[in-house]
Amino acid sequence: MATKRSFPDSFIDEDPQKALETLNEALQGDSDNAEWFCQRAYAHILLKNYSCAANDAKKAQQLQPSLPLAFMRTGIAEYHLNHYESAHAAFTQGHQMDVSDNSFEIWIKRCEEMMGETTQNGSVNMTPAVPPVKHDWYQTESQVIVTVMAKNVPKDGVCVNFMEKELSATIQLASGENCNLHLHLLHPIIPQQSNFKILTTKVEMKMKKTDAIRWEKLEGEGQESNIKHFDPNQYPSSSHYTRKWDKMVVDISEEEKNEKLEGDAALNKLFQQIYTDGSDEVKRAMNKSFMESGGTVLSTNWKDVGKRKVDVSPPDDVELKKY
Question: What long-range pairs does 311-319 form, CB within 8 A, spacing at least 24?
C-alpha cells in the first residue's frame, strides 16, 4: 500500500525553493489536495511570493472549507500584500474554527492596528494599484491559449492555477512588480492537462478543452444552444480584426524553436531538428543506424549505412557486454 506523501513545515523551512518545486510536481498529479495547496502557500510566503501564496491558500479553502490552516495562510499572505481587511476576515474565520490557536488572535490584533493607522492617515499607507495585465488569446481544436506579453519574466516568477472554469495567474515583471490575471472561462477545461510556458517575450498558458468546440469568447457563461463545432478557418479571439492564425501558430512554433537550451536538451533538440528538416534518405539513415547499433550510432548518410549493417559502437570508456 502506497504511503501518503506529506510536506511538513520543517521540510519547507529547510529549502523553500526546493520544496516549492517538489510541491508543484505533487500537485500536477493530485490537484485536489487542500493540504498540499496550504503547504505550497507556505513556501510562497517564505519566498515572499505573497500573491501566489494567497491564490494557493484560497484554493485550499475551496477544496476544504473546514481547514483552519488555509485561512491562516490566506490571512498572512493578504497581510503582507497590505490587504488588511481581507486578512482580518480570514484570521477571524479561521479563529472561529480553531479557538485554541492563539496565533489567530495575534494576527487579528496586528490587522486592527494597521487598519487603524490606514484610517487615520487616509491614503498614505495605501499601496499602488497593481498594473493591469494585457493579454491576448486564440484557440485550436483542442486548446485555448492565453498569452501575456511580458518580457524577461524570471523562471520562478509565474504562479498559475488552472481550475475547471477559472484561470488565475500571478506574473512577476522584470521591474519586480506583480501582475494578476483572473479569468472566468466560457467553457470547462481539463486542469491536469493544462500548462504554461515562460518565453523571453511572453508567458503562454495553454488550457486543454474538454470538448472540441469553438469558443465564441474567452470569458462568460456558455450556453448549450450556442455551442458550435470547431472551424479552424474561423474562430474568435480577443482581437477586433482578422488575423492569419495559421501564420501566428507558425510564428509561435518558430519562437519556441529558437529558445536556447543547454546540455542534453540542446543535443536532443538538434537531432530532432535534423530529423524534421531532413530528406527521406536522411530519415531512413538515422532510423537504420540507430536501430541496428542499439542507439550507439546516429548517421545521416544513407549511401553509407544503406548498403551495410551498422555495428554497435559504444563510447571508448564503455565496455560492450554480450548476453
Answer: none
Q: CA dihedral defined by 149, 152, 158, 160, rounded to 10 degrees?
A: 30
Q: How far is CA 184 from the centre of its chain?
A: 17
Percent of the chain with pLDDT over 70: 76
Please answer whether residues 282 and 275 qualify as being in contact, where contact means their C-beta atoms are separated by less than 8 angstroms. Answer: yes
Residues 6+ apart with CB under 8 A from 15: none
Mean pLDDT to the nearest integer, 252-261: 62
Q: Give the three cell numbers for residue 274.
A: 535534423
Q: What's the pLDDT at 3? A: 47
Strand ordering across the sheet containing 166-172: 158-163, 166-172, 178-184
Asked whether the beta carbons of 71 and 101 are under 8 A apart, the reply is no
Query: The C-alpha cell of 44 is what?
Result: 510562497
Query: Using a CB cutoff of 8 Å and minimum separation of 24, what contacts does 51-60 make?
Result: 51/77, 51/81, 51/159, 51/170, 51/178, 51/180, 52/159, 52/170, 53/77, 54/78, 54/81, 55/159, 55/161, 55/168, 55/170, 56/159, 56/161, 59/34, 59/161, 59/163, 60/34, 60/35
Query: For residue 236, which amino acid is it?
Result: P
Q: Give the alpha-carbon dihedral of 205, 208, 212, 214, to 10 degrees.
A: -30
Q: Which residues contact 122 (CB under 8 A, 6 or more apart)?
A: none
Phi, psi dihedrals of residue 155, rounded to the nearest 5°:
-60, -30
Give the pLDDT confidence of 28-66 residue by residue, as tens digits. Answer: 888 889 999 999 999 999 988 888 889 899 999 999 999
Q: Which three cell numbers stand for residue 153?
A: 519574466
Q: Which residues contact 227 (CB under 8 A, 6 or more apart)?
A: 211, 213, 214
**Residue closest to 72 by CA, chosen among 39, 26, 115:** 39
For 35-51, give the secondary structure using H, E and C.
HHHHHHHHHHHHCCCHH
